[in-house]
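Sample entry (84 residues):
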Amino acid sequence: MGIESLIIFLIVGAIAGWLAGLLVKGFGFGLLGNIVVGVVGAFIAGWLFPRLGVSLGNGILDAIVYATIGAVILLVLIRLVKRA
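Predicted structure, serialized as tokens:
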């Protein structure tokens, strides 16, 4: 992975984490937290969606949508665990 790919990966993670924080009220993690949430969300979506037969595409906007959906799933699971 080149430096450009790593920078894009981190930017996508930050955007996805920020969007997920807006969609799931009550979560604000700052820049580093948003990157972590977005990257973990991307891994969740990358694992889950192919098993469900869902494919969004290969562009950068598709990557942001994928990671955002995965991050929302992650934040909802965190919320459920905190309530239990």
